[in-house]
Recover the amino acids of this structure.
């Protein structure tokens, strides 16, 4: 369901910007305009806590004077403001340096087909109804177990937006999309032994959300499971990343094979194209055209056509993740990834979560990571973790206040198995990941 | 022109509004019994320039404005905002948000309002403090001077950012408060290569000033020298140890430990709700008696400083921990009212499109009496952490982590060799009780901190003297 009238309204503004850029002497230009409306409500301890009405818009333009580039943006779309914005971008371009690699994409790479990706399902819900769902969800969590002692509340968010992108090569496209979520966070225990955890569900279509009951129960289960957590002694052992943590591991890999890291030579996977970076059984591919998925798009943020393709197959890196600029810097062609990846999918293995625990046998299950201890240049990895100690495939007790460390290069090579318990809540779709061993530091 | 008049002109008048129109929106908000209401007007100008590969590569400029309308009744908040500062839109927003009020108190109209406060920074527009050619020249000079420092340098990246933010806050008592907030930031990152090994170093700084800040005391070039030094150290770094050991934290930026491990847990909202590991502990010992920690929004020109917070309350120097005893929390108006204490000037928001909440300003520990060298000498085996990357805290369990970006082994009272990025992990309510020595070398950071909470980012400052902590878990690879 796409409201063509609204898309056309935005297209007119984008075209106006592109025309103004030409008027002011730019040899090329691109512009984007997005409008987003939403409602967020939260309930806590059985009562409404906040009701927020969101209404955002933003417009940005990039102009080129030959090989010189400048950008500007504003949230004011009056015609005076649009002129001023273009002027600011042009002024910056005059001071920027000539950059041989700067410029719009090659025209033949721009998207020409725009299938309906089923991304727009506005949720017909008012504040009162949203509050009702949030409070129901929180009530389930609070009533789930006697150990639940307090709450940070539950919230319902619904957003619907329109995005239009155009450039001076004649590309002018737009689409609408929606995104809704339900989340809940509760506490258990008291004093020094207090623990908190949460759960959330997110979908393009409200019908695809987990129910208030499911979200509330998972939030409560996860919180209660953390009570009486201990530290571990310093050791080496196998580590299983729960699927919601595994996406971060794959995210670090994606960062390292992205054009920006590569041409800056700040990647631990420099010059690894066509070499083995993962075990034989690993396949990672991009699926931009999945209907209704969170990361779907038929063109990237430069208008370049996206493609369903393998990034890793048989453990061998088949393709970098490139934008027009980074591709030119590397002497390659853009992969349609300006702005990021689209439903990056790690091919699931044959084990469900229980099977993965059995494979882990004795070691650490990680369910939360803290801090930013990932060095993209060297691959050194050291983060705070909490989770569970597992023996013979059975969870023994919760653990906290430990760190896990290793080097991503060898961590990736030493993946033992990937589960089929895929987390679909993000742009990276991956099941739990079992690593042969990592260094654990604790008490 | 007085500040209030200047801001009224630049935000209201240019959009065709007068102060009477603000009163009309406020009257609409107050047509139901509420505890508090405010309207937050904002106009922001922002620019960034970056240099990479020896060329001026990117530049961007943005102008944004808007207004946020809020009512509070008990602990319930209704909020709406718009990027169009127009009377009909603000009235509609007011009507939407007041629907949250079912019952409540009539707004207290006699709130004490400070009528004046010291100006901690000038209402400068930093974007205009240099012309564009001068900004470019500064970047190029920093780039070329930095590249000369070491033949192993492969890449230098320099960035320059300025923001010019004007806010006007209308409160339910009819008061209007204005602030004009300049903020500048510069950063230098170098990548160095030796024998196939590649490491980076990064240094920056800034404050509530204009671009002349970087020309004073050779600051811009000092960032380059420091970035090179850090990359040189990292090229020598070996595997970090793992396990529980004595950790000495250097002065200045390592104060991020206080910010993460202690500061967040002392924010009023978490404590009102009883979700912080520090909840209900005022008057109790939470640190060794060597530790006094403050949150001070009143430091002249600092990145975390504000003349008034985003609710119009003048900022304060708030004692959080005095000689080891927890004294109080950081408060915005809502949480202060519900906890029966005074606001402390810590009500901050990222922008008009976000709700205010209790946030830190500049958080630091006061100096002690130990000579920093004596502190190092007292450690037989441990880690000296001189610089950090980011950190994170779970305010409920109190667990925190942060990553070193410059650290050394201490062996027999001497700093021996640099170690690679290690993660420190500990427990907030616990960590300061293990502080056994506090240096006399208190320093604030160079002006680079950005704090995230509930998806909102605000600039902050941190600081501390050299500290010795008896036992913290270090997460390295060398088991």
């Amino acid at each position: 369901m796409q409201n063509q009238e609204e898309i056309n309204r935005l297209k007119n503004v984008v075209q106006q910007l592109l025309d103004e850029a030409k008027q002011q002497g730019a040899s090329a230009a691109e512009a984007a305009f997005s409008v987003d409306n939403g409602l967020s409500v939260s309930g806590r301890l059985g009562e409404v806590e906040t009701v927020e009405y969101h209404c955002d818009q933003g417009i940005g333009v990039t102009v080129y004077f030959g090989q010189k580039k400048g950008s500007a943006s504003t949230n004011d779309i009056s015609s005076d403001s649009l002129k001023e914005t273009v002027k600011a971008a042009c002024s910056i371009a005059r001071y920027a340096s000539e950059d041989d690699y700067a410029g719009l994409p090659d025209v033949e790479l721009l998207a020409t087909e725009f299938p309906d990706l089923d991304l727009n399902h506005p949720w017909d819900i008012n504040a009162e109804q949203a509050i009702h769902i949030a409070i129901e969800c929180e009530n389930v969590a609070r009533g789930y177990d006697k150990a639940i002692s307090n709450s940070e509340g539950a919230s319902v968010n619904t957003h619907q937006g329109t995005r239009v992108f155009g450039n001076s090569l004649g590309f002018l496209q737009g689409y609408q999309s929606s995104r809704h979520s339900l989340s809940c966070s509760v506490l258990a225990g008291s004093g020094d032994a207090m623990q908190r955890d949460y759960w959330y569900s997110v979908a393009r279509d409200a019908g695809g959300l987990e129910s208030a009951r499911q979200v509330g129960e998972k939030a409560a289960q996860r919180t209660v499971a953390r009570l009486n957590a201990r530290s571990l002694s310093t050791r080496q052992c196998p580590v299983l990343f729960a699927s919601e943590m595994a996406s971060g591991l794959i995210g670090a890999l994606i960062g390292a094979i992205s054009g920006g890291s590569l041409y800056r030579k700040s990647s631990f996977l420099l010059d690894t194209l066509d070499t083995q970076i993962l075990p034989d059984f690993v396949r990672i591919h991009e699926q931009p055209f999945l209907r209704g998925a969170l990361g779907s798009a038929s063109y990237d943020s430069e208008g370049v056509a996206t493609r369903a393709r393998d990034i890793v197959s048989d453990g061998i890196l088949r393709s970098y993740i490139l934008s027009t600029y980074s591709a030119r810097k590397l002497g390659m062609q853009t992969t349609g990834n300006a702005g990021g990846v689209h439903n990056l999918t790690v091919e699931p293995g044959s084990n469900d979560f229980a099977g993965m625990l059995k494979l882990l046998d004795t070691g650490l299950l990680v369910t939360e990571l803290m801090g930013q201890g990932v060095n993209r240049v060297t691959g050194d990895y050291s983060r705070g973790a909490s989770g569970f100690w597992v023996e013979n495939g059975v969870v023994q007790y919760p653990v906290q206040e430990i760190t896990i460390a290793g080097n991503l290069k060898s961590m990736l090579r030493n993946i033992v198995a990937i589960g089929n318990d895929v987390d679909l809540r993000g742009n990276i779709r991956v099941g739990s990941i079992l690593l042969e061993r990592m260094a654990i530091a604790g008490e | 022109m007085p500040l209030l008049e200047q801001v009224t002109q630049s935000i209201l008048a240019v959009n065709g509004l007068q102060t009477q129109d603000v009163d009309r929106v406020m009257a609409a908000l107050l047509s139901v019994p509420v505890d508090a209401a405010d309207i937050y007007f904002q106009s922001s100008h922002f620019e960034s320039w970056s240099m990479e590969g020896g060329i001026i590569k990117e530049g961007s400029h943005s102008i944004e404005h808007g207004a946020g309308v809020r009512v509070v009744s008990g602990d319930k908040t209704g909020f709406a905002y718009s990027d169009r500062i127009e009377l009909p839109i603000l009235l509609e927003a007011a009507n939407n948000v007041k629907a949250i009020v079912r019952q409540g108190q009539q707004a207290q109209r006699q709130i004490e309002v400070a009528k004046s406060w010291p100006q901690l920074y000038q209402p400068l527009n930093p974007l205009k403090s240099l012309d564009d050619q001068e900004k470019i020249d500064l970047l190029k000079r920093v780039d070329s001077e930095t590249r000369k420092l070491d033949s192993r340098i492969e890449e230098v990246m320099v960035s320059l950012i300025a923001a010019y933010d004007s806010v006007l806050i209308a409160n339910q008592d009819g008061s209007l408060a204005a602030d004009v907030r300049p903020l500048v930031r510069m950063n230098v990152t170098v990548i160095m290569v030796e024998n196939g090994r590649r490491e980076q170093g990064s240094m920056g700084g800034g404050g509530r000033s204009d671009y002349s800040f970087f020309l004073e005391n050779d600051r811009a070039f000092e960032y380059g020298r420091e970035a090179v030094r850090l990359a040189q150290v990292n090229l020598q770094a070996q595997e970090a140890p793992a396990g529980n050991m004595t950790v000495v934290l250097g002065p200045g930026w390592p104060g991020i430990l206080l910010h993460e491990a202690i500061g967040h847990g002392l924010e009023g909202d978490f404590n009102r709700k009883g979700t912080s590991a520090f909840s209900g502990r005022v008057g109790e010992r939470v640190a060794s008696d060597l530790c006094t920690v403050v949150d001070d929004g009143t430091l002249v020109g600092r990145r975390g400083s504000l003349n008034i917070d985003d609710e119009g309350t003048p900022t304060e120097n708030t004692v959080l921990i005095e000689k080891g005893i927890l004294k109080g929390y950081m408060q915005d108006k809502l949480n202060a009212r519900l906890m029966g204490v005074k606001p402390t000037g810590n009500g901050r928001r990222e922008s008009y499109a976000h709700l205010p909440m209790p946030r830190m300003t500049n958080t630091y520990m006061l100096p002690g009496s130990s000579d920093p060298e004596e502190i190092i000498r007292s450690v037989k085996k441990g880690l000296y952490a001189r610089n950090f990357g980011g950190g994170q805290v779970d305010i409920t369990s109190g667990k925190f982590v942060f990553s070193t970006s410059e650290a050394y082994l201490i062996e027999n009272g001497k700093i021996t060799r640099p170690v690679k990025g290690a993660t420190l992990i500990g427990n907030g309510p616990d960590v300061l009780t293990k502080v056994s020595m506090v240096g006399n070398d208190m320093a604030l950071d160079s002006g680079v901190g950005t704090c995230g909470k509930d998806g909102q980012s605000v600039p902050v400052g941190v600081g501390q003297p050299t500290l010795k902590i008896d036992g913290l878990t270090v997460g390295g690879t060398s088991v």
In short: Residues 4-23 of chain A form the longest helix (20 residues). The two ends of chain A are 56 Å apart (CA to CA). Chain A touches chain B through 77 residues (CB under 8 Å). The CA atoms of residues 14 and 31 of chain A lie 6 Å apart.
